[in-house]
Structures are given as C-alpha cells and as structure tokens.
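User: Before I run my own analysis I want an independent prediction to cross-check against. Here's the chain; please return only the structure tokens and, at the end, one sentence I can use as a sanity check.
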Amino acid sequence: MTDGLPLPRRYLAIAALCLGSALVIIDGGVANVALPTIARDLGVDSSAVVLVVTVYQLMLVMLLLPFAGLGERIGLKRTYQLGQTIFLIATLLCFFAKSLPFLLIVRAAQAVGAAAALSVSAALLRATYPANSLGSGLGINSAIVSASAAAAPTIGGFVLGAAPWPWVFACAVPFALGSLFLGRSLPDPAPHETRFDVLGAVMCAAMFGLVIGGLESGVHGNSPVVSAAIVLLGALIGVSFVRRQRSEDSPILPIDLLASPVIALSALSGFVAFSASMTLIISTPFRLQHEFGFTPPEMGIMLAPWPLTNVLVAPLAGWLSNRIPAGILGGIGMVISITALLLIAFIPPHPQWYDIAWRMALCGSGFGIFLPPNARLIIGSAPRERAAAAGGLVSTVRLVGQTTGATLVATLLAFGVGGDKTPPLVAAGLAVIAGICSLSRLRPAIRNPQPAEMLDEVPVLKQSR
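Assistant: Structure tokens:
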C-alpha cells in the first residue's frame, strides 16, 4: 500500500478537499445574515426563519455517521463526489423557493449533499497525505474551516447587498464546482464488500434527530412534556441502536473504535472542547452589546481575531502533532484557553475594543493548538479500513459539541445569565475537563493499545502520541 498520493496529484487532491471543506462551512454560516431578508420576503416570523439554519445543522448531525458507513461500502471518492452533486442540484432549487416549507426542504437536501462529502473527507485526507504528514494535513484543513467561518458572514453580506437572497446560497457553488473538477485526483481506496445496515442507519439518524430536536424544542419554550417525550424516544432508540451495533463487524456507530481508550478519550475531549468554544462564541455578542454597549460593527472587529488566529495556529499545531504527543499539545492548548476564558469572564468594567480582541485571539489560539492534534489522533489510531468511520466520528463530535454549546447558551439566556460572565466561566469549566482528558492520554496503558488492533498504524501511533 502506498503512503499517500504521489506528487503533483497530491496537491490537486488537497485543493479538492480544501474546497469541499470551505463549501460545507460557508454554506452553513452564510445564511445567517440573510435570515431577516428571507423572513420579510417570505412573510414569516423571525423565530420561524431560524429553521433555515437549524435544519441544515440537524441534518448534518443525523447523516454523518450513516454516510461514513455507506462510503466504506460504495467507495470514498464516489460518496464524496455524489455529495457535491446533490449539493449543486439542491442549490439550484433555492431559486424556486417561494415559501418557507419549500426552502427548508431544499436546505435539507443541501445538508444531505454536504453530509455525504464531509463524512468521508477525513478518510480521503488520510489516504492523500503520507502518514508522517497527516497532522499537517489536518491542520491545513482546520485553517480552511476557520477561514471559511470568518469569511461566511462577509460573503453573505456582500452578496445580499448586490443580489436577491437566493444568491446567498449560490455563493458556495464555485467551491463545489472546483472540488468536483479537481476531485478526479482524489484517492480511490477499494470499497468493502459488506452489507450496509439500512435499519441501523435509520436508527442512528433518528437517535440524533430526536434527542437534539427535543432538547432544542424544550429550550425554545415549547411544551416541556412533549420535548421530554421526544428526547426519551430518541434515547430509547439509541439504546436499541447501540445493542444492534455490537453484533456488526463494521458498525455505523463506531463502537469498535470507541473501545480503544485513546480514541474514546479523544472523542470525549473534542466534544467538550467544541461545546466550550461554541458556548463562548455564541454568548459573547450578547454580553458585548448588553453589558458593554458595543455596536454590531465593533463586535465584528472584536470577534474576528478568534478565527483569524486559528488560521495561523492550526497548521502549526498540525505540523507539531507529527512530532509531539497529542496529549501534551492538547494540555497546552487547554491551559491557554482556560487562561483566556477567565480573562474574558473578568473583563474590566469599561473595556476598549482591543481589550476584547486580544483575549479572543488568545482563546482562539488555545483551541487551535488543541483541535488538529486531537483529530489526528482519532483518525491516525483507526485501522485503514475504518478510516471513514473515524472521520465521521470526528465530524459528528464537532457538530454535536457545537450544537450542545448553542443549546447551553440558549438555556443560560432563558435563566437570565447568558449575557454576563457566566458563559465564559462555564466554558472554562468545560475546557478543564477537555484538558484532563487530553493529558490522560499520556498514561502508558492508554498510549500503547494492543498492536493487533491497528497493525498498519504502529508508526503513526508512536508519532501521534
């Protein structure tokens, strides 16, 4: 088996994957600035139009693991390009949306395509890069994600100022076209000729959809009894789903991978870290406006250092993860983030814009140091034939963590403490948990899993930890 793609094909494949990552992030964030315009043009309430964003995110969470399992069986490259094609077709349908229900259906279809591409992108990255450069590849991908997240609102605002709102969704089309064109250079590992568990895929999607949907319903003021019943139904389906997966050789929910302590700790620490970062990111604008009286343009300037710092730090952290144990890098990253979160919580009474900006930059750098090595450890520790499942796990951990952070902020706002120092203090507590999980991976019993689990990755394991 070759170690990564040969040059120059490797560069073309990297470009295709970077464009695909940018596509998913921009399409997920670009709609935020258009929501008021969409609500006005379609004649719906502001609370209802938020579904344009939440439906997209929820569909991603529901479908990532099922598509990762499908990709292992029909081919990673085929799944990736099929997802891009579905996204393009759904985007064209946005121009025919004259009602909110139809737009929500189109957004769900876009999320189906994005989920198919995102579910296998990490596995394709692993097949693209040599083993000793995988951390650098994941760092570059994290930088692309951060840059896309920072650029999405600006792109959306620019497009909205020059064209009707359907063009906001179309602005991601060039990324899809470029990714499809360059996608001919992507690696094409042989698929596994095993049965795809259709019922298991449905149960997986139902579990995430009902639990997250029920929690969101309760937070936004719907009947607590109905919301609790939805969550309970999702939990019951989840219990049955996990029991069913234990008898599968290649389960959709990668419980075989989570049986490895290093992967389980990495997944847990990633979930907690993403929850912490999203708690801060979503709550900070409320505090800046209500407590300190900053205007929206000023808030944009103060929040921008977070993703911009990530663009610089993530590739460096990925490169370092090829040489320094991920447990050490993760611990350092969380110490930096905890320090920054405490500084943000106890901001002076009358701060200037730069008092906020440098704290956000410091916090972003901490998470930037933590996340790429954490993802590398999950993907690099999985057997090659389970690379898609490991990649799907990484993406699911990110999205579920971000959704949890958003739900946590909504809960704090409902209790009247979401716009003060409480959210950064909560985020600091979560970061402590993530740091402990990261450092725990340095224990010899966890650092050295049984070689029989992943024989083809022993060099990667030694380097990654």
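Sanity check: Residues 261-290 form the longest helix (30 residues).
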